[in-house]
Amino acid sequence: VCVFDYFELKVFWASYTLGVFVCHSCSGLHRNIAQISKVKSVHLDPWSTSEVEFMNSVGNNAAKAKHEQIVPAFYYRPTHKDCTLLREQWIRAKYERKEFVCVERQEPYSAGYREGFLWKRGRDNGQYLSRKFILSEREGVLKYFNKHDAREPKAIMKINTVNASFQPTKIGTAHGLQITYLKDNSTRNIFVYHEDGKEMVDWFNAIRAARFHYLQVAFPGAPNTDLLPKLTRNYIKEGYMEKTGPKHTEGFKKRWFTMDDRRLMYFKDPLDAYARGEVFIGSKESGYIVLSGLPTSIQGNHWQFGITIVTPDRKFLFACETEEDQKDWIAAFQTVINRPMLPQEYAVEAYFKHKP
């Protein structure tokens, strides 16, 4: 079943061996499993009477009931906004591997323990080296080892702070995954990939499973509808802006910015392991405001489309290259500022205020 509403599309495609209608984008992915799914254009290709009758006898709802009988609650269901890898592996999991009609086939991401090797980007030299990773729900950690026979891990990431997000464009590989976690309450990035797309998506869903079970214990009785959005998250916005320092007299410098929930982080390079700085963005009720433009006295910005973020303690000044970038960033900031703060977010805000 296609992941978005094919009735809204002007051009219809269909898998006449599965009996489902698909969108143009997913039709190409179905062609990758031609031994199972054969695709035609509804309007442009000839159809036999038997093919039409088969489509009429199955359809998307019946196919979904058949192929999605036991999808785990934590398993990520991609949308049209997601990367090709997630959408392709969702289609393969359903139709090729039949993972959602046989629970034993879900063990790679449902067992509560996963061990394997991933290519990890080196923090200093940028080279990708094979590293052993272990995910343990019982220990509540994801860890990796610098040497295959090492007894002690290089890093231990607590599941309660781990996030995973596919970043093929930024990392430069179709299977690139960015994993973040908090170390001393600061964000740490690691970038990994594997040649096998299934391997990467299995790791992604194993992380989601571990976080789901952690949250079920941390928030007993909370409905799945509250927990599932917290398993993994995509960034609200990323891109380059210029920034100046706290005195507003320093020259503006070009930096890569990432808006991750209420943390605005900036990096010298998009693939840096650590942020050069982090800014907490609170709510309007707490005195946070985003404004278009910069104070008239400000100089030194090469880009002309300014943004001012007013916090209870100081103003943060940024400049965008284009007016479109400026509007997009303001919209992103406004979305966060308009959202009331949760009780636990006040503790994070307090940490940022007293951060040396």
From TrEMBL:
<dbReference type="GO" id="GO:0005547">
    <property type="term" value="F:phosphatidylinositol-3,4,5-trisphosphate binding"/>
</dbReference>
<keyword id="KW-0863">Zinc-finger</keyword>
<dbReference type="InterPro" id="IPR037851">
    <property type="entry name" value="PH2_ADAP"/>
</dbReference>
<dbReference type="InterPro" id="IPR037278">
    <property type="entry name" value="ARFGAP/RecO"/>
</dbReference>
<dbReference type="InterPro" id="IPR011993">
    <property type="entry name" value="PH-like_dom_sf"/>
</dbReference>
<dbReference type="GO" id="GO:1902936">
    <property type="term" value="F:phosphatidylinositol bisphosphate binding"/>
</dbReference>
<dbReference type="GO" id="GO:0005737">
    <property type="term" value="C:cytoplasm"/>
</dbReference>
<dbReference type="InterPro" id="IPR038508">
    <property type="entry name" value="ArfGAP_dom_sf"/>
</dbReference>
<keyword id="KW-0862">Zinc</keyword>
<dbReference type="Pfam" id="PF01412">
    <property type="entry name" value="ArfGap"/>
</dbReference>
<feature type="domain" description="Arf-GAP">
    <location>
        <begin position="1"/>
        <end position="108"/>
    </location>
</feature>
<dbReference type="GO" id="GO:0005096">
    <property type="term" value="F:GTPase activator activity"/>
</dbReference>
<keyword id="KW-0479">Metal-binding</keyword>
<dbReference type="GO" id="GO:0005886">
    <property type="term" value="C:plasma membrane"/>
</dbReference>
<keyword id="KW-0963">Cytoplasm</keyword>
<feature type="domain" description="PH">
    <location>
        <begin position="111"/>
        <end position="212"/>
    </location>
</feature>
<dbReference type="InterPro" id="IPR001849">
    <property type="entry name" value="PH_domain"/>
</dbReference>
<dbReference type="GO" id="GO:0008270">
    <property type="term" value="F:zinc ion binding"/>
</dbReference>
<dbReference type="InterPro" id="IPR052589">
    <property type="entry name" value="Arf-GAP_dual-PH_domain"/>
</dbReference>
<dbReference type="Pfam" id="PF00169">
    <property type="entry name" value="PH"/>
</dbReference>
<keyword id="KW-0677">Repeat</keyword>
<protein>
    <submittedName>
        <fullName>Arf-GAP with dual PH domain-containing protein 1-like</fullName>
    </submittedName>
</protein>
<feature type="domain" description="PH">
    <location>
        <begin position="234"/>
        <end position="338"/>
    </location>
</feature>
<dbReference type="InterPro" id="IPR001164">
    <property type="entry name" value="ArfGAP_dom"/>
</dbReference>
<dbReference type="InterPro" id="IPR037849">
    <property type="entry name" value="PH1_ADAP"/>
</dbReference>
<keyword id="KW-0343">GTPase activation</keyword>
